[in-house]
Design goal:
single chain; 142 residues; alpha/beta; CBS-domain; three-stranded mixed β-sheet; 6 strands; 46% helix; 20% strand
Length: 142
């Protein structure tokens, strides 16, 4: 299964914010939307970074409550790993495992085309394994 197939099933909508958003506001935004990360876009619509719950926790751990007063541009991950629609589930799992992150923006024609979470990847991998098991059972039974 490819990233394109996952996005075709789950949708391509991505929640985004700007780098000037305050960290405290961003923390509320993540909680209100029940998401673990948000893609940060610059004024031209290009990916400027990604802000995760982990980024906020690290900032608060190092700077205390004052970290919540800074813009997210000060704490976001600015070197964002992305994938393309042609990436396989296994390739995405490898990127996430090696990078130790749970959200992966998808670029399509140089623009943000969606986002894949570890939950999306695991769900699809389980579906693949279950389908393969059913095919093996059907083969054995015939």
């Amino acid at each position: 299964m490819t990233v394109k197939q996952i996005l075709d099933q789950k949708g391509r909508d991505v929640v985004t914010v700007t780098p000037s958003m305050g960290t405290e506001e961003a923390a509320r935004f993540l909680a209100d939307n029940r998401i673990g990360a948000v893609v940060v876009l610059d004024a031209k619509g290009k990916i400027a970074g990604i802000l995760s719950e982990r980024d906020i926790v690290r900032a608060v751990a190092s700077k205390g409550a004052d970290a919540l007063k800074s813009p997210i541009s000060a704490i976001m991950t600015s070197r964002v790993t992305t994938c393309g629609e042609s990436h396989s589930v296994n390739q995405v799992m490898e990127l996430m495992t090696n990078g130790r992150f749970r959200h992966l923006p998808v670029e399509h024609d140089g623009k943000l085309g969606g986002i894949i979470s570890i939950g999306d990847v695991v769900r699809r991998r389980i579906e693949d394994v279950e389908r393969e098991a059913a095919e093996i059972k059907a083969y054995i039974a015939s």
